[in-house]
Amino acid sequence: xxxxxxxxxxxxxxxxxxxxxxxxxxxxxxxxxxxxxxxxxxxxxxxxxxxxxxxxxxxxxxxxxxxxxxxxxxxxxxxxxxxxxxxxxxxxxxxxxxxxxxxxxxxxxxxxxxxxxxxxxxxxxxxxxxxxxxxxxxxxxxxxxxxxxxxxxxxxxxxxxxxxxxxxxxxxxxxxxxxxxxxxxxxxxxxxxxxxxxxxxxxxxxxxxxxxxxxxxxxxxxxxxxxxxxxxxxxxxxxxxxxxxxxxxxxxxxxxxxxxxxxxxxxxxxxxxxxxxx
Length: 278
Ligand SMILES: C[S@@+](CC[C@H](N)C(=O)[O-])C[C@H]1O[C@@H](n2cnc3c(N)ncnc32)[C@H](O)[C@@H]1O
Hints:
Layout: E1 20-22, E2 35-37, H1 38-53, H2 56-76, E3 83-88, H3 97-112, E4 120-123, H4 129-137, E5 141-142, E6 158-163, H5 168-177, H6 181-184, E7 187-192, H7 194-200, H8 203-216, E8 221-224, E9 238-242, H9 245-248
Parallel strand pairs: 3-4, 3-6, 4-5, 6-7
Antiparallel strand pairs: 1-2, 7-9, 8-9
S-adenosylmethionine binds at residues 88-91, 98-99, 102, 123-126, 146, 148-149, 164-167, 170, 270-272.
């Protein structure tokens, strides 16, 4: 597994010569000997970001995000909390256009929500070394181990979990790790629409493969991302999910008690487990 990644700090000052780095990864499945041209990838990211941020799609997303982030504080009278972002499952943005535009949305949201560089973390077991280096150049931190999405959010921070097109297991694990009213009310998830998941998965199967998604769904607020972006397969079926404290008041008794850690009998092709945790 890829637990030997180290946190990469920003090295913005480094001159970006056109150089190729061979991605080497400890997982033989994701080893690649193809070179990645860092300067070229950076240029493509800049171009894509400019295109994204000048689109109507992004103007709408910005408004939607802002509303979600503001509304909870207003409802319970608390002051606005500082923000953090965690991105799982971005994919190989150096070669995949979908992942590249998704990264650009994260960069734009980070700026818009004024998230401190140190508070913007990413992890994908498929990241190649050169991609980790690029993320460092862009001021992101890369998480150094596969936490399988089981990251409890901090109670004094609102955490945006950005999980574009990620599998059910990852999202289900995240909900489990935050299975407390005080935690979930600080969590915002941008990922596959819970409505689509619940509508398209037979209930008995969902109990096994995404039981926490199924249980929280009635108390969650879901706002779909607009479908107006030029490429239709980048932000499709994606929604902003939040768990407003006043809605979480309505859960039945015992709802939060002793949540069992998820254990999946069937393989989720979109989820890579941390073999060190097995
Ligand atoms: C369906 S792909 C989505 C990739 C890209 N975001 C897209 O929309 O095309 C799911 C991604 O989740 C990543 N993934 C799988 N297990 C993960 C884990 N334990 N933690 C973080 N990411 C994981 C995979 O490596 C893959 O890149």
